[in-house]
Amino acid sequence: MDTGVSVVGSGRVSGTPDVLRVMLGVELFAPDVATAVARVGERTEAVVAALRAHGIEGSRLSTSTVSVFQHYREPGTDVGYQASHTIQVESKELTGFGALLNAAVDAAGNSLTMNGLQFDIEDKSELLVQARELAFQQARAKAEHLASLAGFSLGAVSAIAETQNHFPIRRAAANASKGAPFDAAINVTPGDTSVEVTLEVHFAWA
């Protein structure tokens, strides 16, 4: 067994989000599979066209899930089929959520679903560098303290293991005036986005 000390250090750094991600879906029920799939396809295409008309590039639209399943109703009634198509929408306009949602609703009506909203930082590489440096500093400080308590001196680092965590939303809010029509402005607040790096570091004794 290697001699020395193993410690864990962590560092967290926050940054300002620069991308909005929304999961929008179309879900429809029909008496047969072919009709369910066709209707979902048509309305999904309409939603995509509406979003692109609002400036969303094709590269920022991607399918997340597609499903078709048999839908059982009350005994004695006809069996139907439920089809759904979920797409991830990315936008650099962080305050444009209301306009995007309204456009999607206009295109899909009551068959539209929304499965989540997330603010994120597209390139987190610099934040990860800063968080990693903080984590290593904390790990070394712990190791030096333990070494002094044990009457040893720290030597070289013999092993490092890293874990990364991402916290897309620390604070978020959606506000709409009570009783206002649906096409009223919907304001969202991005808040902060954080990344955290945890390092397990093994120091040998000098």
UniProtKB/TrEMBL annotation:
InterPro entries: 26kDa_periplasmic_antigen, SIMPL/DUF541
Domain of life: Bacteria
Protein name as annotated: DUF541 domain-containing protein
Organism encoding this protein: Kribbella karoonensis
